[in-house]
Amino acid sequence: MAAAITLAAERAGIKAKVKTFPWWLVSAMSSFNTTLREMQEMRYLWEQTVEMDNSKLIAFLGHEPQTPLIDAVHSTLAGLGCI
After folding, report:
1. Which of 37, 44, 62, 78 could form a disulfide with 30 if both were Cys (CB 3.0 to 4.6 A apart)?
2. HSE (CB half, 13 Å, CA atoms) of 53?
3. How far apart are the C-alpha atoms of 39 and 81, rounded to whole Å?
4. Is the pTM of this model over 0.70?
């Protein structure tokens, strides 16, 4: 996803920087803030791959419509006014 955002930004002439999320800071501050404590508890979801089964959708539609990831990300960022 980070690569798709970077490419979409480059299409718009913007140089995007990718940095890691400061989980160490969330861990340090989680004792003092409920939101950060809950984020720390749900951290495993950021580290696990989630795949959904779309066989029922394909059976219903007959085929799976797909938009290239870069195009979808570019449209989303443009729609949000980010690029």
Report:
1. 37
2. 3
3. 27
4. no
Angle made by CA atoms 19, 22, 28, in degrees to the nearest 5: 170
Collect all residues with Cβ–Cβ distance below 8 Å to 40 and sequence separation of at least 6. Answer: 23, 26, 27, 30
Q: What is the pLDDT of residues 4-50, one digit of tens each?
A: 999 999 998 999 899 999 999 999 999 999 999 999 999 998 888 88
Cα angle: 11, vertex 17, 18; to 5 degrees: 110
CB-facing half-sphere around the CA of 73: CA atoms within 13 A: 15
What SS3 state is found at 51?
Answer: coil
**Amino acid (1-letter code) at residue 18:** V
Cα radius of gyration rounded to whole Å, the chain: 18
State mean pLDDT over 65-83: 93
Structural domain spans, the chain:
2-79
| Angstrom distance (rounded) from CA 59 to CA 53 | 12
